[in-house]
Amino acid sequence: MKWQGDEYEVIVLGSGLAGLVAGTFLSQKNHKVLLLKENKYQPSHSRDGYHFLPFSSFSEKRLKFSLLREFSRSLDLSLFTDNREGKGKTEKIPGKPEEDVPFQVILPKARIDLFSKVSRFEKEWKREFPKEVDRIVKFYNEINQVQHLLEKMMTEGGSGWVLPLRPRPLIGRWFSYDPLPKDRMSKMLSPFSKEFREFTQLQLISRTGLYSDQFPIPAAAQVLFNNDFDEGGSKVDVEKLREKIFRTFFQSGGKMEEIEGVEKAEKKWRKGFVLSLEGEQRVFRSKFLILNSPLHRFPSLLGKRRKRLSKWGEKIQPRYALVPVFLGVREKVVPVGMKDLLVSIFDLGKPYERGNVLFIALSARGDETEAPEGKRALTVESLMDFGEWDENSLAEHQKEVMRHLNHLFPFLEKNTEFTDWTWVTEQFRRWSYPHFLYQTIPDFGWGEGVVPTRISKDFYFTGRESFPYLGLEGEVFSGLMAGQQILKKYS
Prior knowledge:
2 domains; FAD/NAD(P)-binding domain
Protein backbone atom coordinates (compact mmCIF):
# COMPACT_ATOMS: atom_id res chain seq x y z
CA MET A 1 0.00 0.00 0.00
CA LYS A 2 1.14 3.53 -0.69
CA TRP A 3 2.31 5.37 2.40
CA GLN A 4 -0.10 8.15 3.41
CA GLY A 5 1.69 9.57 6.45
CA ASP A 6 4.29 12.27 6.98
CA GLU A 7 7.90 11.09 6.86
CA TYR A 8 10.85 12.57 8.76
CA GLU A 9 14.37 11.56 9.65
CA VAL A 10 13.90 12.43 13.32
CA ILE A 11 10.78 12.90 15.45
CA VAL A 12 11.06 14.55 18.87
CA LEU A 13 8.12 13.72 21.15
CA GLY A 14 7.79 16.57 23.64
CA SER A 15 8.79 20.24 23.56
CA GLY A 16 11.06 20.35 26.62
CA LEU A 17 14.41 22.06 26.40
CA ALA A 18 16.49 18.88 25.91
CA GLY A 19 14.43 17.63 22.96
CA LEU A 20 14.40 21.11 21.46
CA VAL A 21 18.20 21.26 21.74
CA ALA A 22 18.53 17.86 20.03
CA GLY A 23 16.07 18.81 17.30
CA THR A 24 17.71 22.17 16.64
CA PHE A 25 21.19 20.63 16.54
CA LEU A 26 20.06 18.08 13.93
CA SER A 27 17.99 20.51 11.83
CA GLN A 28 21.03 22.79 11.62
CA LYS A 29 22.87 19.82 10.12
CA ASN A 30 20.23 19.70 7.34
CA HIS A 31 18.22 16.76 8.72
CA LYS A 32 14.43 16.67 8.48
CA VAL A 33 13.15 17.03 12.05
CA LEU A 34 9.60 17.13 13.42
CA LEU A 35 8.85 18.23 16.98
CA LEU A 36 5.51 17.03 18.43
CA LYS A 37 4.18 19.44 21.08
CA GLU A 38 1.27 18.76 23.43
CA ASN A 39 -1.35 21.32 22.46
CA LYS A 40 -2.94 21.71 25.92
CA TYR A 41 0.22 22.10 27.96
CA GLN A 42 1.19 25.67 28.88
CA PRO A 43 4.66 26.08 30.41
CA SER A 44 3.89 29.51 31.92
CA HIS A 45 0.97 31.47 33.36
CA SER A 46 -0.07 35.12 33.05
CA ARG A 47 -2.67 37.05 35.01
CA ASP A 48 -3.48 40.73 35.68
CA GLY A 49 -0.12 41.97 34.39
CA TYR A 50 1.87 39.27 36.21
CA HIS A 51 3.86 36.54 34.46
CA PHE A 52 4.84 33.31 36.22
CA LEU A 53 7.18 30.54 35.12
CA PRO A 54 7.13 27.28 37.15
CA PHE A 55 10.50 25.64 37.70
CA SER A 56 11.92 22.29 38.73
CA SER A 57 15.13 23.53 40.35
CA PHE A 58 17.07 26.74 40.93
CA SER A 59 19.36 25.76 38.05
CA GLU A 60 16.55 27.07 35.81
CA LYS A 61 16.65 30.43 37.56
CA ARG A 62 20.44 30.96 37.64
CA LEU A 63 21.81 29.80 34.30
CA LYS A 64 25.48 28.88 34.36
CA PHE A 65 27.86 30.78 32.11
CA SER A 66 29.30 27.48 30.89
CA LEU A 67 25.80 26.35 29.93
CA LEU A 68 25.15 29.51 27.94
CA ARG A 69 28.50 29.12 26.22
CA GLU A 70 27.63 25.57 25.27
CA PHE A 71 24.32 26.77 23.81
CA SER A 72 26.15 29.43 21.85
CA ARG A 73 28.81 27.03 20.56
CA SER A 74 26.65 23.99 19.75
CA LEU A 75 23.57 25.74 18.36
CA ASP A 76 25.22 28.87 16.96
CA LEU A 77 23.11 31.16 19.14
CA SER A 78 23.96 34.79 19.92
CA LEU A 79 23.69 34.59 23.71
CA PHE A 80 26.79 36.73 24.29
CA THR A 81 27.65 40.25 23.26
CA ASP A 82 31.16 41.44 22.57
CA ASN A 83 32.43 44.25 24.74
CA ARG A 84 35.00 46.02 22.58
CA GLU A 85 35.67 48.84 25.00
CA GLY A 86 39.17 48.49 26.34
CA LYS A 87 41.70 45.98 25.20
CA GLY A 88 40.84 42.83 23.37
CA LYS A 89 37.56 41.06 23.00
CA THR A 90 35.70 39.99 26.11
CA GLU A 91 32.41 38.26 26.71
CA LYS A 92 29.71 40.12 28.53
CA ILE A 93 26.69 38.20 29.82
CA PRO A 94 23.40 40.11 29.64
CA GLY A 95 21.47 40.18 32.89
CA LYS A 96 24.44 39.53 35.16
CA PRO A 97 23.29 40.24 38.73
CA GLU A 98 25.07 42.74 40.94
CA GLU A 99 24.91 40.62 44.09
CA ASP A 100 26.69 37.32 44.53
CA VAL A 101 24.05 35.32 46.45
CA PRO A 102 22.47 32.61 44.29
CA PHE A 103 19.82 31.87 46.93
CA GLN A 104 19.08 31.66 50.64
CA VAL A 105 18.46 28.62 52.82
CA ILE A 106 15.99 29.26 55.63
CA LEU A 107 15.92 26.87 58.59
CA PRO A 108 13.56 27.23 61.56
CA LYS A 109 16.18 29.23 63.49
CA ALA A 110 18.58 30.39 60.78
CA ARG A 111 18.76 32.23 57.47
CA ILE A 112 21.91 31.58 55.44
CA ASP A 113 23.01 33.47 52.34
CA LEU A 114 25.05 31.32 49.96
CA PHE A 115 27.64 33.93 49.07
CA SER A 116 29.88 32.95 46.19
CA LYS A 117 32.82 34.63 47.91
CA VAL A 118 34.20 32.01 50.28
CA SER A 119 35.14 34.52 52.99
CA ARG A 120 31.59 35.87 53.20
CA PHE A 121 30.05 32.40 53.04
CA GLU A 122 32.29 31.26 55.93
CA LYS A 123 30.92 34.06 58.10
CA GLU A 124 27.40 32.79 57.43
CA TRP A 125 27.89 29.22 58.57
CA LYS A 126 30.24 30.19 61.42
CA ARG A 127 27.46 32.39 62.74
CA GLU A 128 24.73 29.76 62.37
CA PHE A 129 26.72 26.62 63.30
CA PRO A 130 29.31 27.86 65.85
CA LYS A 131 29.63 24.51 67.67
CA GLU A 132 30.59 22.65 64.49
CA VAL A 133 33.06 25.04 62.91
CA ASP A 134 36.07 22.70 62.89
CA ARG A 135 34.13 19.79 61.40
CA ILE A 136 32.50 22.05 58.80
CA VAL A 137 35.87 23.46 57.71
CA LYS A 138 37.15 19.91 57.23
CA PHE A 139 33.96 18.93 55.36
CA TYR A 140 34.22 21.81 52.87
CA ASN A 141 37.95 21.24 52.35
CA GLU A 142 37.33 17.57 51.49
CA ILE A 143 34.45 18.38 49.12
CA ASN A 144 36.46 21.15 47.47
CA GLN A 145 39.37 18.76 46.87
CA VAL A 146 37.04 16.31 45.13
CA GLN A 147 35.74 19.10 42.88
CA HIS A 148 39.29 20.15 41.94
CA LEU A 149 40.06 16.52 41.12
CA LEU A 150 36.98 16.33 38.91
CA GLU A 151 37.98 19.47 37.04
CA LYS A 152 41.49 18.09 36.52
CA MET A 153 40.15 14.78 35.21
CA MET A 154 37.80 16.54 32.80
CA THR A 155 40.54 18.89 31.59
CA GLU A 156 42.90 16.00 30.98
CA GLY A 157 40.09 14.26 29.12
CA GLY A 158 39.84 17.19 26.72
CA SER A 159 36.60 18.75 27.99
CA GLY A 160 36.49 22.24 29.45
CA TRP A 161 32.83 21.90 30.35
CA VAL A 162 32.68 20.03 33.67
CA LEU A 163 30.11 17.31 33.07
CA PRO A 164 29.63 13.69 34.12
CA LEU A 165 32.60 11.46 33.49
CA ARG A 166 32.27 9.45 30.34
CA PRO A 167 32.11 5.66 30.89
CA ARG A 168 35.51 4.07 30.54
CA PRO A 169 36.11 1.08 28.26
CA LEU A 170 35.53 -2.25 29.98
CA ILE A 171 39.23 -3.07 30.16
CA GLY A 172 39.87 0.37 31.61
CA ARG A 173 37.44 -0.31 34.44
CA TRP A 174 39.44 -3.37 35.40
CA PHE A 175 42.94 -1.93 35.30
CA SER A 176 42.70 1.85 35.74
CA TYR A 177 42.87 3.60 39.10
CA ASP A 178 39.85 5.68 40.06
CA PRO A 179 40.89 8.32 42.64
CA LEU A 180 37.35 9.50 43.37
CA PRO A 181 35.78 8.61 46.76
CA LYS A 182 33.17 5.85 46.74
CA ASP A 183 31.27 6.88 49.89
CA ARG A 184 27.88 8.60 49.95
CA MET A 185 27.00 11.97 51.44
CA SER A 186 24.89 10.36 54.16
CA LYS A 187 28.03 8.83 55.67
CA MET A 188 30.03 12.02 55.30
CA LEU A 189 27.33 14.10 57.01
CA SER A 190 26.51 11.65 59.81
CA PRO A 191 28.69 13.40 62.48
CA PHE A 192 26.92 16.74 62.00
CA SER A 193 23.85 18.27 63.63
CA LYS A 194 20.46 17.81 62.03
CA GLU A 195 20.46 21.51 61.14
CA PHE A 196 23.70 21.34 59.14
CA ARG A 197 22.70 18.07 57.47
CA GLU A 198 19.42 19.66 56.39
CA PHE A 199 21.20 22.80 55.23
CA THR A 200 23.42 20.72 52.92
CA GLN A 201 20.57 18.46 51.75
CA LEU A 202 18.39 21.43 50.81
CA GLN A 203 21.22 22.89 48.72
CA LEU A 204 21.58 19.62 46.78
CA ILE A 205 17.85 19.28 46.16
CA SER A 206 17.43 22.96 45.21
CA ARG A 207 20.13 22.89 42.55
CA THR A 208 19.26 19.53 41.00
CA GLY A 209 16.15 17.43 40.42
CA LEU A 210 17.04 14.59 42.74
CA TYR A 211 15.69 13.73 46.19
CA SER A 212 18.27 11.54 47.87
CA ASP A 213 20.34 11.20 51.00
CA GLN A 214 22.62 8.83 49.08
CA PHE A 215 24.29 11.38 46.82
CA PRO A 216 27.68 10.07 45.64
CA ILE A 217 30.35 12.42 46.98
CA PRO A 218 31.70 13.31 43.47
CA ALA A 219 28.19 14.24 42.31
CA ALA A 220 27.61 16.32 45.44
CA ALA A 221 30.96 18.07 44.98
CA GLN A 222 30.03 18.96 41.43
CA VAL A 223 26.77 20.49 42.65
CA LEU A 224 28.04 22.27 45.77
CA PHE A 225 31.38 23.55 44.47
CA ASN A 226 30.84 24.20 40.81
CA ASN A 227 31.61 27.90 41.22
CA ASP A 228 30.35 28.76 37.77
CA PHE A 229 26.83 28.43 39.19
CA ASP A 230 27.46 30.96 41.91
CA GLU A 231 29.91 33.49 40.58
CA GLY A 232 27.72 35.72 38.49
CA GLY A 233 25.24 33.13 37.27
CA SER A 234 23.08 34.83 34.66
CA LYS A 235 19.39 35.62 35.15
CA VAL A 236 18.57 34.98 31.51
CA ASP A 237 14.98 33.75 31.48
CA VAL A 238 14.68 30.07 30.53
CA GLU A 239 11.43 30.83 28.73
CA LYS A 240 13.11 33.48 26.58
CA LEU A 241 16.01 31.14 25.95
CA ARG A 242 13.58 28.43 24.81
CA GLU A 243 11.87 30.93 22.47
CA LYS A 244 15.24 31.86 20.97
CA ILE A 245 16.09 28.20 20.34
CA PHE A 246 12.62 27.65 18.83
CA ARG A 247 13.28 30.46 16.33
CA THR A 248 16.60 28.89 15.43
CA PHE A 249 14.89 25.52 15.03
CA PHE A 250 12.34 26.93 12.59
CA GLN A 251 14.91 29.00 10.69
CA SER A 252 17.01 25.89 10.13
CA GLY A 253 14.06 24.00 8.63
CA GLY A 254 12.59 22.24 11.67
CA LYS A 255 8.82 21.58 11.77
CA MET A 256 6.40 21.47 14.70
CA GLU A 257 2.95 19.91 15.10
CA GLU A 258 0.61 20.28 18.06
CA ILE A 259 -1.04 17.01 19.11
CA GLU A 260 -3.12 15.51 21.91
CA GLY A 261 -0.75 12.62 22.41
CA VAL A 262 0.79 9.51 20.89
CA GLU A 263 -1.28 6.36 21.14
CA LYS A 264 1.43 3.98 19.98
CA ALA A 265 4.93 3.99 18.50
CA GLU A 266 5.70 0.86 16.50
CA LYS A 267 9.13 -0.16 15.27
CA LYS A 268 8.82 -1.34 11.67
CA TRP A 269 12.30 -2.83 11.32
CA ARG A 270 14.10 -0.99 8.48
CA LYS A 271 11.25 1.47 8.01
CA GLY A 272 11.82 3.03 11.41
CA PHE A 273 9.08 4.17 13.77
CA VAL A 274 5.40 4.64 12.99
CA LEU A 275 3.57 6.93 15.42
CA SER A 276 -0.23 6.75 15.76
CA LEU A 277 -1.80 9.87 17.28
CA GLU A 278 -4.60 10.05 19.84
CA GLY A 279 -7.92 11.10 18.31
CA GLU A 280 -6.48 11.43 14.78
CA GLN A 281 -6.20 9.35 11.65
CA ARG A 282 -2.82 10.83 10.80
CA VAL A 283 0.34 8.88 11.46
CA PHE A 284 3.99 9.94 11.34
CA ARG A 285 7.03 7.92 10.38
CA SER A 286 10.69 8.53 11.18
CA LYS A 287 13.96 6.68 11.29
CA PHE A 288 14.86 8.04 14.75
CA LEU A 289 12.60 8.77 17.72
CA ILE A 290 13.55 11.03 20.65
CA LEU A 291 11.35 10.91 23.76
CA ASN A 292 11.51 14.20 25.67
CA SER A 293 8.91 13.79 28.40
CA PRO A 294 8.90 12.24 31.90
CA LEU A 295 9.60 8.54 31.52
CA HIS A 296 6.72 7.46 33.77
CA ARG A 297 4.23 9.18 31.44
CA PHE A 298 4.85 6.62 28.67
CA PRO A 299 4.96 3.11 30.17
CA SER A 300 3.34 1.48 27.12
CA LEU A 301 4.64 3.72 24.34
CA LEU A 302 6.44 0.98 22.43
CA GLY A 303 3.90 -1.83 22.79
CA LYS A 304 5.82 -5.12 23.05
CA ARG A 305 9.06 -3.22 23.49
CA ARG A 306 7.84 -1.31 26.55
CA LYS A 307 10.00 -3.48 28.82
CA ARG A 308 12.96 -1.40 27.69
CA LEU A 309 11.31 1.73 29.09
CA SER A 310 10.12 -0.09 32.22
CA LYS A 311 13.63 -1.34 32.91
CA TRP A 312 14.95 2.18 33.22
CA GLY A 313 11.81 3.49 34.90
CA GLU A 314 12.45 1.10 37.78
CA LYS A 315 15.83 2.73 38.41
CA ILE A 316 14.49 6.26 38.76
CA GLN A 317 10.99 7.23 39.85
CA PRO A 318 9.25 10.47 40.83
CA ARG A 319 9.26 10.84 44.61
CA TYR A 320 7.52 14.23 44.77
CA ALA A 321 5.47 16.34 42.42
CA LEU A 322 6.45 20.01 42.56
CA VAL A 323 3.20 21.94 43.02
CA PRO A 324 3.36 25.64 42.09
CA VAL A 325 1.14 28.39 43.46
CA PHE A 326 1.31 31.92 42.05
CA LEU A 327 0.82 35.06 44.14
CA GLY A 328 0.70 38.66 43.06
CA VAL A 329 2.10 40.69 45.99
CA ARG A 330 3.06 44.25 46.80
CA GLU A 331 6.78 44.93 47.15
CA LYS A 332 6.50 46.08 50.76
CA VAL A 333 5.54 42.56 51.87
CA VAL A 334 9.05 41.25 51.09
CA PRO A 335 11.18 41.26 54.29
CA VAL A 336 14.43 43.22 54.28
CA GLY A 337 17.34 41.00 53.31
CA MET A 338 15.24 38.33 51.61
CA LYS A 339 16.71 37.25 48.28
CA ASP A 340 14.87 36.55 45.05
CA LEU A 341 15.44 32.79 45.40
CA LEU A 342 15.13 30.83 48.62
CA VAL A 343 14.40 27.37 49.99
CA SER A 344 12.73 27.12 53.38
CA ILE A 345 11.97 24.26 55.76
CA PHE A 346 9.37 24.93 58.45
CA ASP A 347 9.86 21.94 60.80
CA LEU A 348 13.03 19.82 60.87
CA GLY A 349 11.15 16.93 62.45
CA LYS A 350 8.61 16.50 59.65
CA PRO A 351 8.81 15.12 56.08
CA TYR A 352 9.27 17.51 53.17
CA GLU A 353 5.75 17.19 51.78
CA ARG A 354 2.54 19.06 52.74
CA GLY A 355 4.11 22.50 52.62
CA ASN A 356 6.99 21.80 55.01
CA VAL A 357 9.59 22.64 52.35
CA LEU A 358 9.08 25.49 49.89
CA PHE A 359 11.15 26.64 46.91
CA ILE A 360 10.40 30.31 46.28
CA ALA A 361 11.19 32.63 43.37
CA LEU A 362 10.43 36.37 43.46
CA SER A 363 10.43 38.38 40.27
CA ALA A 364 13.14 41.01 40.11
CA ARG A 365 12.26 44.31 41.77
CA GLY A 366 11.01 46.79 39.19
CA ASP A 367 10.81 44.27 36.33
CA GLU A 368 7.49 45.21 34.71
CA THR A 369 7.68 42.29 32.26
CA GLU A 370 6.91 40.04 35.25
CA ALA A 371 4.80 42.27 37.52
CA PRO A 372 3.18 45.74 37.53
CA GLU A 373 5.03 48.66 39.08
CA GLY A 374 5.39 48.36 42.86
CA LYS A 375 4.42 44.69 42.82
CA ARG A 376 6.19 41.36 42.44
CA ALA A 377 5.34 37.93 41.09
CA LEU A 378 5.81 35.27 43.75
CA THR A 379 6.15 31.66 42.55
CA VAL A 380 6.08 29.05 45.30
CA GLU A 381 6.89 25.38 44.66
CA SER A 382 5.86 22.87 47.33
CA LEU A 383 6.24 19.09 47.44
CA MET A 384 3.38 16.63 47.25
CA ASP A 385 3.91 12.90 47.52
CA PHE A 386 3.67 11.58 43.98
CA GLY A 387 1.00 9.02 44.83
CA GLU A 388 -1.28 11.40 46.77
CA TRP A 389 -2.56 13.67 44.01
CA ASP A 390 -6.33 14.25 44.36
CA GLU A 391 -8.63 17.18 45.09
CA ASN A 392 -9.03 16.42 48.81
CA SER A 393 -5.29 16.12 49.51
CA LEU A 394 -4.62 19.25 47.45
CA ALA A 395 -7.04 21.30 49.59
CA GLU A 396 -5.23 20.28 52.78
CA HIS A 397 -1.89 20.83 51.08
CA GLN A 398 -2.86 24.40 50.19
CA LYS A 399 -3.59 25.24 53.83
CA GLU A 400 -0.15 24.08 54.96
CA VAL A 401 1.61 25.96 52.16
CA MET A 402 -0.15 29.20 53.09
CA ARG A 403 0.69 28.66 56.78
CA HIS A 404 4.37 28.38 55.86
CA LEU A 405 4.20 31.43 53.60
CA ASN A 406 2.52 33.57 56.26
CA HIS A 407 5.38 32.65 58.58
CA LEU A 408 7.96 33.86 56.03
CA PHE A 409 6.09 36.97 54.84
CA PRO A 410 4.49 38.93 57.71
CA PHE A 411 1.21 40.62 56.74
CA LEU A 412 1.06 38.56 53.55
CA GLU A 413 -2.73 38.44 53.40
CA LYS A 414 -3.03 42.23 53.54
CA ASN A 415 -0.57 42.71 50.69
CA THR A 416 -1.65 39.95 48.28
CA GLU A 417 -3.44 40.78 45.03
CA PHE A 418 -4.43 37.14 44.39
CA THR A 419 -3.45 33.53 45.07
CA ASP A 420 -3.74 31.30 42.01
CA TRP A 421 -3.70 27.47 42.09
CA THR A 422 -5.50 27.01 38.76
CA TRP A 423 -2.42 26.35 36.62
CA VAL A 424 -1.32 23.25 38.49
CA THR A 425 -4.83 21.72 38.64
CA GLU A 426 -5.16 22.17 34.86
CA GLN A 427 -1.64 21.16 33.85
CA PHE A 428 -0.51 18.44 36.27
CA ARG A 429 -2.01 15.53 34.34
CA ARG A 430 -0.56 16.61 30.99
CA TRP A 431 2.13 14.27 29.68
CA SER A 432 4.43 17.25 29.18
CA TYR A 433 4.31 18.29 32.87
CA PRO A 434 8.00 18.14 33.89
CA HIS A 435 8.13 19.29 37.52
CA PHE A 436 9.12 16.34 39.70
CA LEU A 437 11.81 15.44 42.22
CA TYR A 438 13.18 11.99 41.47
CA GLN A 439 14.68 9.26 43.59
CA THR A 440 16.98 6.57 42.25
CA ILE A 441 18.19 3.16 43.24
CA PRO A 442 21.03 3.64 45.77
CA ASP A 443 23.87 2.48 43.52
CA PHE A 444 23.08 4.44 40.36
CA GLY A 445 26.10 5.07 38.15
CA TRP A 446 26.45 8.83 38.43
CA GLY A 447 29.34 8.96 35.95
CA GLU A 448 27.29 7.42 33.13
CA GLY A 449 23.93 8.92 34.10
CA VAL A 450 20.84 7.13 35.38
CA VAL A 451 18.82 6.64 32.18
CA PRO A 452 20.97 6.34 29.05
CA THR A 453 20.44 8.74 26.17
CA ARG A 454 20.16 5.79 23.78
CA ILE A 455 17.44 3.40 24.99
CA SER A 456 17.59 1.01 22.04
CA LYS A 457 18.35 1.05 18.31
CA ASP A 458 17.30 4.45 16.91
CA PHE A 459 15.31 5.27 20.07
CA TYR A 460 16.65 8.05 22.35
CA PHE A 461 15.63 9.63 25.64
CA THR A 462 16.36 13.23 26.67
CA GLY A 463 14.35 13.69 29.86
CA ARG A 464 15.43 14.97 33.26
CA GLU A 465 15.95 11.40 34.40
CA SER A 466 19.18 11.05 32.39
CA PHE A 467 21.28 13.29 34.67
CA PRO A 468 18.88 14.39 37.45
CA TYR A 469 21.69 15.51 39.77
CA LEU A 470 22.78 18.18 37.26
CA GLY A 471 19.47 20.00 36.95
CA LEU A 472 19.06 22.02 33.76
CA GLU A 473 22.67 21.37 32.75
CA GLY A 474 22.03 17.62 32.69
CA GLU A 475 18.89 18.10 30.63
CA VAL A 476 20.75 20.13 28.01
CA PHE A 477 23.65 17.68 28.03
CA SER A 478 21.32 14.75 27.28
CA GLY A 479 19.83 16.69 24.33
CA LEU A 480 23.25 17.43 22.87
CA MET A 481 24.34 13.82 23.38
CA ALA A 482 21.28 12.50 21.53
CA GLY A 483 21.86 14.90 18.64
CA GLN A 484 25.52 13.99 18.37
CA GLN A 485 24.85 10.24 18.55
CA ILE A 486 22.23 10.42 15.79
CA LEU A 487 24.51 12.59 13.66
CA LYS A 488 27.22 9.89 13.85
CA LYS A 489 24.80 7.44 12.21
CA TYR A 490 24.94 9.58 9.08
CA SER A 491 28.72 10.01 8.99
